Structures are given as C-alpha cells and as structure tokens.
UniProtKB/TrEMBL annotation:
The species this protein was found in: Hansschlegelia quercus
Transmembrane segment boundaries: 7-29, 41-61, 73-93, 113-131, 152-170
GO biological process, one term: intracellular zinc ion homeostasis
Record keyword Transferase present: no
Lineage per the UniProt record: Bacteria, Pseudomonadati, Pseudomonadota, Alphaproteobacteria, Hyphomicrobiales
This protein's name: Cation transporter
Protein location: Membrane
A Pfam family that the UniProt record links to this protein: ZT_dimer
Annotated ranges, domain Cation efflux protein cytoplasmic: 208-284
C-alpha cells in the first residue's frame, strides 16, 4: 500500500470518528444546525471510501486495455465527491425547512458543543495534512478530499458562532437559518470541486507556469535542432503528458536526432519525474518558424 492509499484509508477512519462526534452533538442538543454539520460528515465518510477505491485503481500499472494508465480514476472520485456534497446540501435544506415550519427548542449542552468542537479540530488537522500531501504528490483525489474537509471546518465554525447568537438573543429561527447558510456553502464547494475535476477528465492543459517551464527547458536543451512547435499538454492524475514536434536538419542522422530527444526528455524529467514526453521528429522543410526557438 503506497502513501496515497494510506492517506485515503486514514481519511475513512478520521471521517468515521468525526461523524460519531457530530452525531452525538446533534443528539445531545437537538440543533438542526448541528444536524447539518453531521450530514456533511456522512458525505465525508462516503467520499473517503470513494477516494480510497479510486486511488487503488489509479495505482494500477498500464495494461493492454489502458496503455496510458488508470490515473483518471482519481478525477472520477472527485466528481463523485462533488455530487455527494450536493446531495448533502439537499438533505440539510430539507431538515432546515422542517425546522422553520415547526420550530424546536435547542439545548446547547457543554458536552454536545464540546463534541462538535473536538470533531472540527480533528477535521482541520487532517484536512490541512491532506492538502499539503496532496499537493506534494499531485493527487487530485487527495487534494479534493482535503479541500472538502476544510470547507466542513469553515461550516462548523459558522454553525457554532450562529448557535451562540441564537442562544444569546433567544431566537430559535436562527438555528435553521444557520443550517441553510451551511447548505449554500456546501453547494458552492461542491460546484467548485466538480468544475476542477471535470477539467482533468476533459484533458485540460497544464498550468501556464508548467507550460512556460516546458518551453524554456526545450529551448535550452534542444541544441542541434532548428525549432519545436505544436506543443500540447494534458493532465491525468499525477501525470503530465507532453508532446510536440521537433524540427531538425533533413540530413541529420537518426542517432543524432534521437540523442537530442533523449536530452530534452532527461531535462524535463529532472523538472518533473511524472512527465510523459512524446516527441515527433520532422525535417527542416516542415519548420513553421514559430513556437519554441532553440537557444
């Protein structure tokens, strides 16, 4: 089991602990706002299970049916997590509407609030770890899980502040109102998550910074060639696919052209070991006199 799978498995354990604490907080207080917090934690557990399955699939090596690997499974997981977030928002809004129609008294016991605060602290610590490690290992699923947990933390803080106001001003309607605000925040985070994940599924290009780095590396390392053009990039999980056309002199020996390609690939791999590079060699009459100028 690699580090990504261990992180995903850890998220399941953390999610179950946090869900138990938040469910206890809701049962002890009867607050619909705390119910909304617990409902989001149900999604966290389901999403963490989906992430674990996805990273296990993504870690499988390329095979005959999937010659480019299975990394896109992580994007599928992230999209599923976004859909689950939207479903949780619907459940929260439904419960909040019922509380508006039939207001209920809430009992903000210290034990109930303490359980919710402890759950939020655990979520924050684990969410920050996932964000840091997900960025380091370039895992869309792990980063999405971390971002979701941090959204949950923000929601929990808002819930606690709102409940404090409800208690201070003795306004029971503030409890479902807070739940509605949580649902809107959850919907927003879900929409952003789905948008970023769909970009990976639709072969979105590498970031402008990465493309600039690739162009600069090619320009420095392609000595002996004439130019490079038609650069294309796309992401698939941790991998970045790079392909371009390299123009060389028509009478250049195959071995010489191959050495230039090897030199470029080594330099790109030195910048990012997860780049997969494909270079198409062309003779000088195919030069477009645009694109990447060889230094």
């Amino acid at each position: 089991m690699d580090s990504i799978q261990r992180l995903a498995l850890g998220s399941i354990v953390v999610g179950i602990v946090v869900l138990a604490l938040k469910a206890a907080a809701y049962l002890l207080t009867g607050s619909v706002a705390l119910y909304s917090d617990a409902a989001e934690s149900v999604v966290n557990v389901a999403a963490s299970i989906a992430v674990f399955v996805a990273v296990r699939v993504a870690s499988a090596p390329p095979d005959r049916d999937h010659p480019y690997g299975h990394q896109k499974a992580e994007y599928v997981s992230a999209v599923l997590e976004g859909v689950l977030i939207v479903a949780a928002a619907g459940a929260i809004l439904n419960e909040a509407w019922g509380a508006f129609l039939h207001p209920r008294e809430i009992d903000l016991t210290p034990l109930g609030l303490g359980a919710n605060i402890l759950a939020s602290v655990i979520n924050a610590a684990w969410g920050l770890l996932l964000l840091r490690r997900g960025k380091a290992i370039r895992s869309p699923a792990i980063k999405a899980d971390g971002a979701h947990l941090m959204t949950d933390v923000v929601s929990s803080i808002g819930v606690l502040i709102g409940l404090g106001l409800a208690l201070a001003f003795r306004q029971p309607w503030l409890d479902p109102a807070i739940a509605c605000a949580v649902a809107i925040n959850v919907l927003w985070s879900g929409a952003r998550l789905v948008r970023s994940s769909l970009g990976g599924l639709m072969d979105e290009a590498a970031s402008p910074e990465t493309q600039t780095l690739i162009r600069q590396t090619i320009a420095k390392q392609a000595e002996g060639a004439i130019e490079a053009h038609d650069l294309r990039t796309r992401h698939a999980g941790r991998l970045t696919f790079v392909d371009f056309h390299l123009v060389v002199a028509g009478d250049m020996r195959v071995a010489e052209a191959h050495e230039i390609c090897d030199r470029i690939e080594r330099a790109l791999h030195a910048e990012d070991a997860d780049m997969l590079v494909t270079i198409h060699i062309e003779p000088e009459d195919k030069a477009e006199h645009s694109g990447i100028v060889v230094l």
